[in-house]
């Protein structure tokens, strides 16, 4: 089992970044777990060339979002301190 991040959903197509390398895969958005959206981490397995989508990994999703929020806060602090402007 592997993990994928939902990068974006556009016109019914979901773009997933799969595994540590972030390999890009597309699937029909209707295959995603109910309530899944941009930035969510989902479980996936591969069967031949097909990607089988599992559920949302809420713990990893929450951890990723906290990390992104922390990075944005640091950037804002650096910008306010004059490093970027």
Q: Can you give keywords for this protein?
A:
alpha+beta, 85 residues, OB fold (Dihydrolipoamide Acetyltransferase, E2P)
Distance between the termini: 45 Å
How do the helices and strands follow one another from N- to C-terminus? EEEEEH
Number of domains: 1
Fold-level CATH name: OB fold (Dihydrolipoamide Acetyltransferase, E2P)
Work out the radius of gyration.
Answer: 16 Å
3D shape: elongated
Mean pLDDT: 92
CATH C-level category? Mainly Beta
In which order are the strands of the major sheet placed? 3-2-1-4-5
Low-pLDDT parts are none
Q: Please tally the helical runs, counting DSSP H or I stretches of 4 or more residues.
A: 1
- What is the CATH-assigned architecture? Beta Barrel
List the helices and strands and how they pair.
Layout: E1 2-10, E2 13-18, E3 23-28, E4 41-47, E5 50-56, H1 58-80
Antiparallel strand pairs: 1-2, 1-4, 2-3, 4-5
Describe the protein in words.
- The protein is 27% helix and 41% strand.
- With 85 residues, it is an alpha+beta fold.
- It has a five-stranded antiparallel sheet.
What would a concise description of this structure say?
This protein is 27% helix and 41% strand. It contains one helix and five strands, in the order E-E-E-E-E-H. The chain has one helix at residues 58-80; strands spanning 2-10, 13-18, 23-28, 41-47, 50-56.
């Amino acid at each position: 089992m592997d993990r994928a991040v939902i990068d974006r959903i556009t016109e019914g197509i979901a773009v997933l970044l799969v595994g540590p390398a972030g390999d890009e895969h597309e699937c029909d958005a209707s295959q995603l777990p109910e309530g899944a959206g941009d930035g969510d981490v989902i479980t996936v397995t591969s069967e031949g060339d097909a990607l089988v989508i599992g559920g949302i990994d809420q713990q990893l999703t929450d951890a990723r979002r906290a990390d992104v929020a922390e990075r944005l806060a640091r950037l804002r602090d650096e910008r306010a301190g004059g490093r970027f402007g």
